[in-house]
Amino acid sequence: MIHGVPPDPGRLRTYRAHGHTVMELHGDIDIAAALTLQPRLDAASHPPEALIVIDLTFATFFDCSGLALLCRTRHRLDERGGELLLVCPHPLTLRMLRVLGLTEPFRPVPTLGDALRPRIPARE
Predict the structure, then answer these.
(1) Measuring CA to CA, how many Å separate 55 from each of 21, 23, 27, 123?
(2) What domains are defined for the chain?
(3) Among the four residues 30, 97, 100, 109, which has the most C-beta atoms within 10 Å?
(4) How far apart are CA 29 and CA 16, in angstroms?
(5) CB 50 within 8 A of CB 22
(6) Is 23 helix (H, G, I), strand (E, B) or coil?
(7) What CA–CA distance (Å, rounded) separates 112 from 25?
(8) Per-residue pLDDT tens digits for 17-55
């Protein structure tokens, strides 16, 4: 258990893979879930230069509360020199990101393998 963070309510599975902290969100990611998930996402995004993958593959519902969690976590990571990668195979969630102009900042990918694949830096 992370000090000062309530126990996991079953909506989050966290593990390490290829130097990243992978956080799988499960079930309905709504306002009730956001209240329990926020302290865990805050704790994971606190260390400098943290590398986090948020995997929405197992999310069955995702509303604006979930979007607020993503935005807060991305902002915290940006402030600390970290990186957020987003796995999102769901057409409706992708559509929400697109309508809100958030596909560019989040750059969602369809699978965890795509998120963890080494990226080749763009040539200048």
Answers:
(1) 10, 6, 12, 29
(2) 12-111 (3.30.750.24)
(3) 97
(4) 22
(5) no
(6) strand
(7) 13
(8) 999 999 999 999 999 999 999 999 999 999 999 999 999
Using DSSP's 3-state secondary structure scheme, residue 120 falls into coil
CA quadruple 108, 26, 2, 68: dihedral sign: positive
Contact 12, 26 (CB under 8 A): yes
Task: Determine the Cα–Cα distance for residues 64 and 70; give it in Å rounded to an integer.
Answer: 10
Q: What is the DSSP string of 38-105?
A: HHHHHHHT-STT-EEEEE-TTEEEE-HHHHHHHHHHHHHHHHTT-EEEEE---HHHHHHHHHTT-HHH
pLDDT of residue 10: 78
Question: What three-state secondary structure class fits 9?
Answer: coil
Q: pTM for the full model? A: 0.86
Identify the residue whose tokens are 């393998």. Answer: 113
The C-alpha atoms of residue 37 and residue 29 are separated, in whole angstroms, by 9
